[in-house]
């Protein structure tokens, strides 16, 4: 047990506490750092929340304005000043801040303007694919995204997969000072405990599950095209934000009767454990939280072999369930195989991703 003098203070900064994978990682990491005996303090740039706020973790909210205002180059220094004031308030309460871990683009953009020496920037998503997606949305979106990434020049980075680490080391857009790979943390025992909880909303008929916000990156269109090729009695449960967008696309693609849209779930694990398999159809990821969570629940998975992460989780016999990006026919074949001949998932497959082990790797950087 650490004494009060042994405890270190770690600050985790994130754009918001809304229902994305990176936000979930930040909350879990804060809990794990706290569990191994140090102080973990969450700083959310905005008050946007969907996840339950931890009762035993201090949380500070910095800004009242919408998230979109935080990319402004004209307000960047003012925003940095407000973040520095929040950090000073935390330091006055807890003492010296050992290390700050910044998460997501707006946090990176503002933290780099603070010129602090003890900051690591955690990369949760593929850079090149994010830029390519932004380019398709117009030149202004692309220039903005490029500006957000370019501030990482000469910074210390953490990536959540080996694939992301290799990308960071080979980019022309910026050259980091150093890159460390640390996988995302998973409280394996808690996930399995939560998976055993009853939920009357779970459908009795066989279903595939997909978890992810309604965004082009997630490729619901590819998933729905694959669904058309499966038996009509197989349902597809979609957990994620923007229920209307998911349902409208399903109706447009004439699979609305097979799709069950439930929206965001604080506890998705009973849904995962009762599913016949989990499908991931993304164009790109950073690691993919939901793949790991499904494997922890011993639920079969089918995934696109997208950059980055899935091929680091689906190894050995599981690699047969990796399919090309943007190929609904291959996805349908793999899903049918998973449904008819489910593979046994080893219970200890992802023990190396246990939350306390991962938290210690973060602490060891200090």
From TrEMBL:
Question: Start and end of every Glycosyltransferase subfamily 4-like N-terminal domain?
Answer: 20-189
Q: Which residues form the Glycosyl transferase family domain?
A: 199-342
The organism encoding this protein is Alteromonas aquimaris
**Which protein is depicted?**
Glycosyltransferase
CDD domains from the UniProt entry = GT4_GT28_WabH-like
Q: Could you name the domain of life of the organism this protein comes from?
A: Bacteria
The record lists the lineage as: Bacteria, Pseudomonadati, Pseudomonadota, Gammaproteobacteria, Alteromonadales
Q: Which PANTHER family match?
A: GLYCOSYLTRANSFERASE, SPORE COAT PROTEIN SA
Which is a Pfam family this sequence falls into? Glycos_transf_1
Annotated SUPFAM superfamilies: UDP-Glycosyltransferase/glycogen phosphorylase (SSF53756)
Q: Which InterPro entries match?
A: Glyco_trans_1, Glyco_trans_4-like_N
